[in-house]
Design a protein that fits this description.
GO molecular function, one term: GTPase activity
Pfam families: EF-G_D2 (PF22042), EFG_C (PF00679), EFG_III (PF14492), GTP_EFTU (PF00009), LepA_C (PF06421)
CATH architecture of the largest domain: 3-Layer(aba) Sandwich
Structural class: alpha+beta
GO cellular component, one term: plasma membrane
Main location: membrane
Strand order of the largest sheet: 13-12-18-9-10-17-14-15
CATH class of the largest domain: Alpha Beta
Shape: elongated
Helix content: 25-40%
CATH superfamily of the largest domain: P-loop containing nucleotide triphosphate hydrolases
CATH topology of the largest domain: Rossmann fold
EC number: 3.6.5.n1
Distance between the termini: 55 Å
């Protein structure tokens, strides 16, 4: 059908993408005015508060530019953060066009460029738009010129819109209809004549007949879970017709299912009779294991069919252990994580036990933001207070001739033959006045291959660094030194040899596993000294002296001592010979020596919580 337009809105965080989507919903009368609320497609309260899109949100809109014309506009509102890059890449393959949105007050930023390159790589028709023109920023013309230069088009082709007032939205809708192509012949299952032009079916019956003859195929770009319908796959149909009651298969997962329901997003789920090639909708699979639905997988007629290109298994890169603040909340924490996984298939977790904090769960995340979101949702949605370990990454370790993957610091060997650590390519876009401050970050983080180039009215700083450094407050440091004007984008690349080591903390000659970390070799002494100094301030005194030590490869690199708690054993004596006091003091000393050899220090959970704070 020539009247379908599938597109996404892509932008840097907080550039007004969700607010603009609200105006599109209003202009097409998809949502009644009485039901409308700010950031309508962002269903979580956390999304509205942070001003970012966390969960992908598709919606089907019907648009009539003039009498006798009707178009179906399928919009996918995507997350803008780099942590969710794979999900966004799958959404880009499900559409034919993209609206590249730029905040007129802030200009082009790092993720704007990353989104542009991804959309260009996917072969999408890209429409440039500058948002927040109602604020009349003085640099608006410069931003329009920069965006036109990036898209290699005339400044007149850049649309001026306001997500707040709705100005420019009608022109945006007309431009989407005019410049975004309908689903291609290959994806639509249409005839192609000798001249290479698509011949569209003359009737709905003919369209259904031809689609039925093609193999059923649909790309899964997101999912959610429903207690009654099971796992619901968000799909873009590329071939065949999907109907309720028919058998289908998940190719990569190797699972079969019976379709319980199909439908569209308005933006709530609305059942329909069938989904045809080119449609974006949902398929209720009835599968009760949400992990079986994987983003990027292909739904088809038979198991063993062809998977649409680009599929990858979700790869957690940041690992954090969660422990309930109260031991009695362990089962509640397990149920909460299971419920979160129903709507967040990238979340992975397994049981974990700590000598200090008891039973918990080791969780894998797509990045630091993903971890922070899950941690906050546990508090907001389930009322659970948790303690989490230091965020860590995976390392590939070689011992002898064998390689193994290490996810937890306590499993890292003392003397590995070789270590490979995950690396990222980092792009920082900053105003020229902050360039010197940004470059000084290399003194604190292990940045290499630093290159700078001028981009419009800003400077792009490209570098390479370990992922472990990136999750160690790199973003916070960047925002602090640039006053929030610098922006960041990163991309995971291949692993590289790393000069890292295991740092262990000993209290009274016993290793505390929960405080073990993997750190850079050149930072081990500083990190170890900082840790034992903080422990000295936090741990209570005992009847014996406590040695606090930081150890690397069997060598003590830092030490502090908490002196024994003094008890006046001679206070009740008065007068008499001094030998009576000496006798009591020697007896006390012998007791302390015995305690020092056999005594154990229990690390209170409160102390552990303080140590894990930034």
């Amino acid at each position: 059908m020539q009247n379908i337009r599938n597109f996404v809105i892509i932008a840097h965080i907080d550039h007004g993408k969700s607010t603009l989507a609200d105006r599109l919903l209003e202009a097409t009368k998809t949502v009644e005015a009485r039901r409308m609320k700010p950031q309508y497609l962002d269903q979580m309260e956390l999304e509205r508060e942070r001003g970012i899109t966390i969960k992908m949100a598709p919606v089907r809109m019907e648009y009539a530019p003039s009498a006798g014309e009707r178009f179906v506009l399928n919009l996918i509102d995507t997350p803008g953060h780099s942590d969710f890059g794979y999900e966004v890449s799958r959404a880009l393959t499900a559409v034919e066009g993209a609206v590249l949105l730029v905040d007129a007050t802030r200009g082009i930023q790092a993720q704007t460029l990353a989104n542009f390159h991804n959309a260009k790589k996917a072969g999408l028709a890209i429409i440039g738009a500058v948002n927040k023109i109602d604020l009349k920023p003085p640099a608006q013309d410069d931003v329009i010129l920069d965006l036109a230069t990036l898209l290699e088009c005339s400044p007149d082709d850049i649309l001026r819109v306001s997500g707040k007032t709705g100005e420019g939205v009608p022109e945006l809708l007309r431009t989407i209809v005019r410049r975004v192509p309908p689903p291609t012949a290959k994806k639509r299952g249409l005839d192609v004549n000798a001249a290479g032009r698509a011949r569209f079916p003359s009737s709905q019956a003919e369209s259904e007949a031809k689609a039925e003859n093609n193999a059923k195929q649909a790309l899964i770009f997101d999912s959610r879970y429903d207690d009654h319908k099971g796992a619901i796959a968000f799909v873009r149909v590329t071939g065949g017709v999907f109907k309720a009651g028919e058998e289908s298969a998940l190719i990569a997962a190797g699972e079969r299912c019976k379709v319980k329901e199909v439908g569209y997003f308005h933006p709530e789920l609305q059942p329909t009779d069938a989904l045809y090639p080119g449609d974006i909708g949902y398929i209720a699979t009835g599968i009760k294991e949400p992990g079986k639905i994987r983003i990027g997988d292909t739904m088809a007629s038979l198991v063993g069919g062809e998977v649409l290109p680009g599929y990858e298994e979700p790869r957690p890169v940041v690992f954090v252990a969660f422990y309930p603040a109260e031991e009695s909340d362990h089962d509640d924490l397990k149920r909460a994580l299971e419920e979160l996984k129903l709507s967040d298939s990238a979340l992975q977790f397994e049981p974990e036990v700590s000598e200090v904090l008891g039973r918990g769960f080791a969780c894998g995340f797509l990045g630091r933001l993903h971890f922070e979101i899950v941690a906050e949702r546990l508090v907001r949605e389930f009322g659970l207070k948790t303690v989490n370990s230091f965020p860590s990454v995976t390392y590939r370790v070689k011992e002898g001739t064998a390689w193994r993957t290490v996810k937890h610091p306590k499993d890292f060997p003392d003397n590995p033959d070789q270590v490979l650590q995950p690396m990222v390519n980092v792009e920082v876009l900053t105003p020229p006045s902050y360039l010197g401050d940004v470059l000084r970050l290399k003194e604190k983080f292990h940045m290499s291959d630093i290159r700078t180039e001028t981009f419009a009215h800003s400077v792009m700083v490209r570098s390479r660094m370990p992922l472990a450094d990136l999750i160690r407050d790199f973003d916070d440091n960047l925002k602090s030194l640039s006053g929030g004007f610098a922006s960041l984008n990163y991309e995971l690349v291949e692993d590289a040899p790393g000069d890292v080591t295991k740092l262990e903390v000993l209290v009274a000659n016993e290793v505390v596993p929960g405080l073990t970390r993997i750190v850079a070799e050149d930072e081990a002494e500083h990190e170890g000294r900082t840790m034992v100094e903080r422990l000295k301030d936090l741990l209570p005194k005992q009847q014996f002296a406590q040695a606090l030590q930081a150890k690397v490869r069997g060598r003590i690199i830092a030490r502090e001592t908490i002196p024994a708690q003094r008890k006046d054993v001679t206070g009740y004596l008065y007068g008499g010979d001094r030998t009576r006091k000496m006798k009591l003091w020697k007896k006390q000393k012998r007791g302390k020596e015995r305690l020092k050899q056999s005594g154990r220090v229990e690390l209170p959970p409160g102390v552990f919580k303080e140590l894990l704070k930034k």
